[in-house]
Amino acid sequence: MTDIQPAGAVAEIDLAAFRRNVELLVATAAPAEVMLAVKANAYGHGMVPISRAALEAGATALAVLEVSAGLELRAAGITVPLFAWLHGTDTDFRAAAEANIDLGVSALWQLEAIAESKASVPARVHLKIDTGLSRNGASAVDWPDLVTTALHLESQGFLEVYGAWSHLADASTADDEIALVKFTIAVEVATSLGARFAKLHLAASSAGLRMPAARFDYVRFGIAAFGISPFDDTDGPGLGLEAPMTLSAPVLAVEALPAGHVWLGGLDVGLAMPATLALVAVGFGDGVQAPAVDRAEVLIAGERRRIVALGVDRMLVDADDLDVTVGDRVVVFGSAVRGEPTAEEWASHADSIGDEIVSSVAVRVPRVYVG
Ligand SMILES: *Cc1c(COP(=O)(O)O)cnc(C)c1O
């Protein structure tokens, strides 16, 4: 940790570790390019600083989920290709086209809304074929209609048919292989209808790492860049990735307590034996996963210890025989490199996934950037 000493929980983001992850992914995907997925506020890490770091590390495009997030990146001065694919009836397609944000399109109504938006420049669209369980994207039956409508609107100057894409369910390798075949067939169908795609993209972290045939022009890596494995058989460090986010909080009090029912800092706990407990300024309101608490550990005074009680903004931690003082920082999760519990460990204790652990860190927790 650095010498930052805020009063409460802090999520420190190590941009150097993040860039190393992206560099590794860029090297893995090559010659495909990396379109880094920065949705959900870059999985809780902060969209703008993470986007800049990703581009420094060799990503050449960013995937943002909503047009509004793309507009935020443009306002922050980011000029690379941006891709937004989650649209509502209130999506501002005109602003998107005029800000040069590529649009993922999966339904006719979206093509119509783009044409009707009267943007001063044609919108660049990437047509989406449904290749599996995604519930989103044109089915094989609807696909020819989507393609021909898009080509018709292109001939009228409303849009440019630029890419074709889909998203893998990652349910199993066999499912992903089938999806890859469906994708390839859909591209052939579109080509026979006259489409000429400049960019094809299908893979996210999982297929980007382990299914070279799915890499095409872009790999949309997301969670792997945040040091979290998309696989069950290995963790992030096993893939050579490091977690950039460290969630920590200061010790507010340390007390030696008698056996029995005791209170400390508004939390109560039943102690079978006398114990020393540390009150730490982080709780479920900051994003600590309550279901994991019985099994999870934190790093306090260089040791891994159990959480004894959890409240909205504080927790009690076993501090028996530890040299710990008020103000010491306790790490909830961080980097395996420093022996800290990881978000992936927390996920296994909460029957969750690492994506959820890092994305759940509350908005009120300040993000502090280092490296
Ligand atoms: C979330 C998402 C990604 C990134 O997925 P990861 O599994 O986190 O790598 C890529 N593409 C789309 C369309 C997504 O929704």
UniProtKB/TrEMBL annotation:
Keywords: Isomerase, Pyridoxal phosphate
Cofactor: pyridoxal 5'-phosphate
MF-aspect GO terms: alanine racemase activity
Enzyme Commission no: 5.1.1.1
Domain of life: Bacteria
CDD domains: PLPDE_III_AR
Domain Alanine racemase C-terminal: 244-370
Leading EC class: isomerase
Pfam families, per database record: Ala_racemase_C, Ala_racemase_N
NCBIfam families in UniProt: alr (TIGR00492)
Name this protein carries in UniProt: Alanine racemase
Organism of provenance: Conyzicola nivalis
